[in-house]
Amino acid sequence: MINQKQWFEGHPFRVAFSKAKVLPYIASLFIRVNLWLKNFLSIKGRRRGLIPSFIFLNLLILPPIIPAFSRQILIPMDLVQTDHLKAYGIAYHALAKGIRVEWLLNYRTGSFLIDATSQIENECKLENVYYEQVSSQQIIEIRQTIEANNMESILLEKAPKVAVYVPPTHDPWDDAVQLALEYAKIPYEKLWDKEVLAGKLFEYDWLHLHHEDFTGQYGKFYSGYQNTDWYREDVTLNEKMARELGFKKVSKLKLAVIKEIKRYINEGGMVFAMCSATDTPDIALAADATDIVPEVFDGDGIDPNYQSKLNFENCLAFENFHPITDPLIYEHSDIDTYLEASARGPDTYFSLFDFSAKYDPVPCMLVQDHTGLVKEFLGQNCGFRRDKIKKNVLILGEIANTEEVKYIHGNYGRGTYTFLGGHDPEDFTHRIGDPPTNLELHKNSPGYRLILNNVLFPAAEKKPLKT
């Protein structure tokens, strides 16, 4: 027979009664009862005895709850915030110190409610992150507002361990995710092919794929950059790594790497990618049983029947696409929307979708922003054709009135992947050799907020996706 303790330990709702969660759970329950009673009174009328009972309930429950919230701060993420990007770093550092953090989805565009300590308040002041000291009554009002609207409070459970897949040498371009991590002072570790194939991925909660070509074609920079030092060094480095790890061709090495990354996702890992690291993984996976790599890259020709041999079942997000095998064309496939985006120019915006915070908290987390419209930016891949996206993939952002999608999210096995097209959210045409974007000049960047949503996403209390 199962005793009470065993039942409690095995019960799926035991999480609500942990030390870190019991008070907000009680507060939420109390607020729900309050809202129901108010609605009942307004519908049924002021029946004798109901109002005194309602007042008695408030007096009975409020006193023990109010003191529990007396030392918390709110970091609002609406337009009053002085540095949106560093606010994510404050939340991360609080988690790393074991301080309780709630992410208030859709409340003042994704604010953070944090247990107040002098250390966290001093950090806010030092980093010029705006925060508000909130009273017990204000916290009750915040929770009432959340309960009554398309909002939700998500408890952040731990600071995720972050990794970035990136070559060990200096590239001629910077990476927006690394810039965001460093600006927000969120720690991360770098790994590359050797570490991935050695199983090191599983030591991390979240992985970012740096600007990478998983088809083994060196970014298809051959036409414009084959004679530059950095291109030659890139080829030499990759060929050396392939030989060292027992692969005859770089394309075979990269295929093995992306298969291991796919296994990492399947077993619960969370991956975020931008630019060419969004579409080249699926191109490589689809071409597992054929050769789409031209001779100038690997010493042998392409399979003339490659298109019929592509297996889209291998792919995470895309299907029915056509690889572009001409080495002189700076494009990997017809997934990308670069031509349309570059023709429109820099005055284009993509729109973020609105999700139910209570029923679909996962996508809601990923689109938290202080604006629903984010400025377009180019990259080797800058967006995705809607008809090439698998039906089970969730669209988070799109170019309105077009067939172009900018931001997507999907599940694979027990993990997730999220792809954002483009290279740098604050530089429409960030070119090779351009200096890194100075985020001191873009503290409130909506595009960089999307990146940092993804960094913090693995910290969230796990809730099922219902969309």
Give a short summary of the structure:
The protein has helices at 4-10, 22-44, 50-65, 84-96, 118-126, 136-148, 176-184, 193-197, 222-225, 229-244, 250-266, 276-286, 295-298, 306-309, 338-344, 361-366, 446-456, and strands at residues 72-75, 101-105, 111-115, 132-134, 152-156, 162-165, 189-191, 206-209, 270-274, 349-352, 373-375, 384-385, 394-398, 404-412, 415-420. It has 467 residues and is of the alpha+beta class.
Describe the structure.
The protein has 467 residues and is α+β, with helices and mostly antiparallel strands. The protein has two domains: 4-156, no CATH class; 162-459, Rossmann fold (3-Layer(aba) Sandwich). It has 17 helices and 15 strands. It has helices at residues 4-10, 22-44, 50-65, 84-96, 118-126, 136-148, 176-184, 193-197, 222-225, 229-244, 250-266, 276-286, 295-298, 306-309, 338-344, 361-366, 446-456, and strands at 72-75, 101-105, 111-115, 132-134, 152-156, 162-165, 189-191, 206-209, 270-274, 349-352, 373-375, 384-385, 394-398, 404-412, 415-420. Strands 6, 7, 8, 9, 10, 11, 12, 13, 14 and 15 form a ten-stranded mixed beta sheet that branches. Helix 2 (22-44) runs antiparallel to helix 3 and helix 2 (22-44) packs across helix 6. The longest helix is centred in the N-terminal third of the chain and has 23 residues, at 22-44. It is globular. The two termini are 39 Å apart. The relative contact order is 0.12. The model is unreliable at 1-21, 42-48, 63-70 and 463-467 (pLDDT under 50).
